[in-house]
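Translate sequence into structure tokens.
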Amino acid sequence: MHHRYLEELRQRGYRITPQREIIIQAVADSTAHLTAEDVLKLIRPRSEAINIATIYRTLEMLVEEGLVIRSDLGQGQAVYAPQQHGPHIHLVCRHCGEVIAADHTMADSLQEQIRARYHFEADFTHITIFGLCAQCQSQEK
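Result follows.
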């Protein structure tokens, strides 16, 4: 997957440095949502010369180019995921932090209602909903 990202960035005029290539590979080939610190841990065995500022700059470039999505899953820091994950909904437990992937089509009717009532095109590509998971609900009873 990272080869496609590298080619797209080259076509858009970006210079691909060895540092960028390592960071892009880590993010594009990941199946998880990663913080900048997660990326640093992943790439550290390959290159100790890459610092956290370079990672943040590269992640922001990927977000600006539409290759990566930045989200807030309530962890106090942004997480990043490749755009190819497609539309998805995260249900995040406020108590234990569990993240549950929900069926993104559940938001279709809400998107239609927003469009009809407010004449607003909402971007429902990536939604995060906070609440309590089943386990934490049962512990509160």
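Note: The longest strand covers residues 88-93.
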